[in-house]
C-alpha cells in the first residue's frame, strides 16, 4: 500500500490495516490501539466497518490543522464520507434526525448562517448567567440523592438530571417531558431502535415548536421561532433539526462527562485530594478531564481537495477521521499525557473540536462540569465506588459514556 489515497482494496503482501473505530476497555483511558496508530505516524490509513478505508489523524498539530482546513467537508452526503457508526448510516439513509443538515454536518456558507443564529445564546457571559440555575439543579439533585441514601446510580440520580435540566432550561423545552427524550436517547444505543427513537423525538419537537409558534415562551427555541420562523426566514423542519442536535448533544455529552469525571477522580485519589485542598484548581481540572477523557471518539470529514500532511497525501474524496482521544494524548503536545494532572494547563485540547465546527455549547459544558464537581465532593466527602471500576458498564457509540455508576458513601 502506498501513501496515496485509500483504494478500498489492499496489496496482499502489505501489512493489514488497523481496524477503526477502536473500542475502550477502561472507562477513563483511551483505547490502547491508539499506540499502534501513532507508531504508524500522525496520519495513517485504517479500515472501517464494511471494508472501506480512511485516514486516521492521531497527531495533535495535524488534527488542529485539518479541523481548521476548509478543504475538509463535514457534509456526510458526500461520497466516501466515513460514517463509522452503523446508527449514523441508518439515519443518513432515512435523512432524519441526528445532525442531518444541522450545524456539524454542513459547510460554509450554510454552516456560517446556522451558527450565527445560535452564537448569542452560547456566549461565555450568557452561560455564566445560567450558573445560578445550574447550581440550583445540582443542589436539588444532591438533596434528593442524599435523602434517598446509598447506594445510588450517579448517572440517573445526578449527572443526567443536571444535564437534562440545564439544556431544557436553555432551549425552553419542558423538563416535565425529560423522561420521554431521555428514553429516546437511550434507545439510540439499542440494536434496531435508532431510527424509531429519532423519529419519535422529531415528532415531539415538531409539536413543541408548533405550540411555540402559537404562544412563544422564554428559551432559545422561542427566540428562534419569533426571530426566524414566524418571519419566514427559517423552516420549522430545520428548527426541529437544530433542536434535536442541541437537545441530545447537550444532555448526552454533559451527563457523560460529569459521571466519567467523578469515576476518574475517585480512581485518582491524589488528584481529588488536590482539588479538595484547593478548589481554585477546578476550572483547570475541568480542562484536564476533558483532555484526558475525550469522549468523542473521532470527528469525520471528507477531503474536497488534495492535502499534504504528516508525510501523507490525502486525495480529494478521501475520508478523514480526526481521533480526538489520540490527539489529546499526543506526547509532543502534552507531557506525560497518560497521566491525569489537575495542575496541568490543558486548554489547547481538542475535546470540543477545533476550527469552524468547534462545539457551540462548550462554555455551557464547562459551567455544568465545574458546578457539579465542586459541589458534589464537599457535600459527599466519603463518596466511593460501590463496584470495581472495571465492572462499570460502558456505552460505546458516537459519544462514549458509562451506562451506570453505582456509588456509596
From TrEMBL:
The keyword Ribonucleoprotein does not apply. Keywords: Heme, Iron, Metal-binding, Monooxygenase, Oxidoreductase. CDD domains: CYP105-like. Residues 1-25 are annotated as: Disordered. Pfam families: p450 (PF00067). Belongs to the cytochrome P450 family. This is Cytochrome P450. It comes from Streptomyces ziwulingensis. The lineage of its organism: Bacteria, Bacillati, Actinomycetota, Actinomycetes, Kitasatosporales.
